[in-house]
Amino acid sequence: MSKPDEVLEVRDLVKRYPAVLAVDGVNFSVRRGSCFGLLGPNGAGKTTTVEMMEGIMPPTSGEILYEGHAIGPRFRDEVGIQFQSTALQDHLTVLETLQLFRRLYKHGADLEQVIQMCSLEKLLKRDNRKLSGGQRQRLLLGVALVNDPKILFLDEPTTGLDPQARRNFWELVERIKENDKTVILTTHYMEEAYRLCDEIAIMDQGKIIAQGSPQALLKEHFDDVILELPKSDLPSPLVDFAFPVLERGDYIEISTPDVNLALAMLVERNINLNRMQVRPRNLEDLFLELTGEDLRT
Amino acid sequence: MIRRIAAVLNARNVEFLRDRSTLGWNIFLPVLLVLGLSFIFSGQGRPMFKVAVLQQTGQIDEQLHPFLQTKYIEFFTVADQADAVRKVARHKIDMLLQFEPEDRYWVNPEAPKGYILERLLLQTDPGIARAEVSGEAVRYVDWLLPGILGMNMMFSCLFGVGYVVVRYRKNGFLKRLNATPLRPIEFIIAQVLSRLILIMAVTVFVYIGTRYFIDFRMQGSYATLFIVALVGAICLISLGLVVAARFTSEELAGGVLNMLTWPMMLVSGVWFSLEGSHPAVQMLARIFPLTHILDAARAVMLDGATLTQVMPQLSALGLMSVVFLFTGAAAFRWQSD
Q: Is B15 buried (19+), middle (13-18) or exposed (0-12) by CB count in 10 A?
């Protein structure tokens, strides 16, 4: 039985292709008004899971409950979806595209509000084909909002965007969250998940390997911070050091629960600390900790 | 439902009308073809002599008459005298010969080819009896025009629907529509209506445009011709939807569409009459919608046939449309499995 504040519940979800088990018995629920993030590397099963939740793809087994009931025709009217890659109809303007999708729903949002929320005012007469990556994602978000959805699915919404466009998009999602909408987000950008999500589930090889709020998960798995040092600042390789040392590209990372002690030991070895950075543990570290693999590989 | 169909219909129409290159191609290609071919065939064009020999069955015995040994004339047998005489009158056959119980020939005195054949025949047999039929001469361009219009409709309907829907599926637009309350049948109806409106508008435009340059023959009623074109277009669009139902590859869809359009272009009577061709070819031609469209259109334009007279062709097209539409709707997928 679903709890009253659970808007979506996923039970024992499996998706099997002839040669691949894409989703392997996944269970989780999404609270009303929260932002739920599915994280994982490419091929982890995030998009497959989300597309089954969206009703686009049938599961091999398992069930998905929307407000306690199996997904039915009402679901299509009450969700908004932004796919990872979607083409829009050629030769239509931004405004015509929004109008097309708005007319497919019986009830929906005021287009003016959608246009304003997605900052599309200056693009209304522009041909879809002439939009930049960021503008296009804003339009696709607008298309996903035309029916004033209760749940908004965003599948890798900022993949391929430059950092500025990505940050602008995050601000849009934060504005949407303020309107009490439930957001389900898939991403492989940990910073994105950390900033937007109230709860995350980390997927790897079709399974959920950790679930909870980003802060709680980090607290649960780590009690240390990371000291980052350029390799070039080390007179010799850092062997027999009291804390774990990890090489990452041109940097080394020292994980330590005691920064004072670690700093003292580095000073003792005459290491230049001018370019050293101290950072807290992040979700990327968590993924590495859980799977032994770098998220971006 | 109507609101959703209207939304998709409107969007597709806007897309088509703003795609200037496709629109131009749809309008100007048939006009150019008609103009070019009418120019080519208006002069000392290639003779297309078709002589039917009245006999019940079997091969034509060349020893029956020396005329049968003449080269560059296509001889073939017919069994129904009345029907053959009517075809001579309508220029589908240039001459009809009979050797049992007496030697006799029918020729249309208005037909240039009939006149030449008659001169040749009388060279070999001055005493053969003449039986005249009458009928106004139909130029090749009169005969060709319905073929060109039909061919343009065929390409536009099949590629315009089949190719476009497959492209929508491949680039994920159909998947996006699937995430809305739009139902497959609503999407299909919108595509059929959109292409139907566009192809009928383009065909009428091309017809009027061609008429401006060429004074071609139109014996029947415009309303009947419009109905023939309408039913034919529905049938061809429905066939396009069958191709579009599942494919995700434009290359594969293009190949299948070519496989459908080329045989139709060759054996449905776009360029030349199928009279006298192998029975298997004639039978094959009957399974193609374009054959029925052209039969009906030529009957209306050249012979002034009424709606009742072209009802057999319209019925065949209607039946095919129902089969294609149901097959297309049942097989339709928003995205690949």
A: middle
Closest chain B residue to the Cα of A95, Cα to Cα: B11
Contact A216, A194 (CB under 8 A): no
The 3-state DSSP class for residue A241 equals coil
Q: How many domains is chain A partitioned into structurally?
A: 2
Please judge whether A83 and B176 are an interchain contact, meaning their C-beta atoms are less than 8 angstroms apart: yes
- The verdict on ipTM greater than 0.90 is no
Q: Which helix (H) or strand (E) holds A108?
A: none
Q: Tell me, what CATH number does A163's domain have?
A: 3.40.50.300
* Nearest-neighbour CA in chain A from B251: distance (Å): 19
Whether residue B234 contacts residue B328, with contact meaning beta carbons closer than 8 Å, is answered with: no
pLDDT digits (tens, 9 = 90+) for A30-62: 998 889 999 887 788 888 999 899 888 889 999
User: Is residue B112 classed as helix, strand or coil in its secondary structure?
Assistant: helix
Residue B336 forms part of a structural domain: no
pLDDT tens per residue across span B73-98: 888 888 888 888 888 877 778 899 98
Please check whether residue B185 is in contact with residue B266, taking contact to mean a CB–CB distance below 8 angstroms. Answer: no
> In this complex, do B172 and A86 lie within 8 Å of one another by their Cβ atoms?
yes
State which residues form the domain around B161: 2-40+139-331
Interatomic CA distance for residues A90 and A16, integer angstroms: 35
Contact state of B181 with A89 under an 8 Å Cβ cutoff: no
- Rounded Cα–Cα distance for residues B246 and B166 (Å): 8
Q: How far apart are alpha carbons A62 and A224 in whole angstroms?
A: 39
In eight-state DSSP terms, residue A126 is: S
* Residue B101 DSSP SS3: coil
State chain B's maximal CA–CA distance in angstroms: 80
**Inside any domain, residue B216:** yes
What DSSP state is assigned to residue B46? P
Which of chain B's residues have a Cβ under 8 Å away from the Cβ of A141? none
Asked if A85 and B18 come within 8 Å (Cβ–Cβ), the reply is no
User: Of all helices (H) and strands (E), which one includes residue B318?
Assistant: helix B311-331
Number of structural domains chain B divides into: 2
Q: Strand B104-107 vs strand B129-132: parallel, antiparallel, or unpaired? A: parallel
pLDDT bracket for residue A110 (50, 70, 90): confident
Nearest-Cα residue of chain A relative to residue B186: A104
Last residue of a domain, one of B132, B158, B188: B132
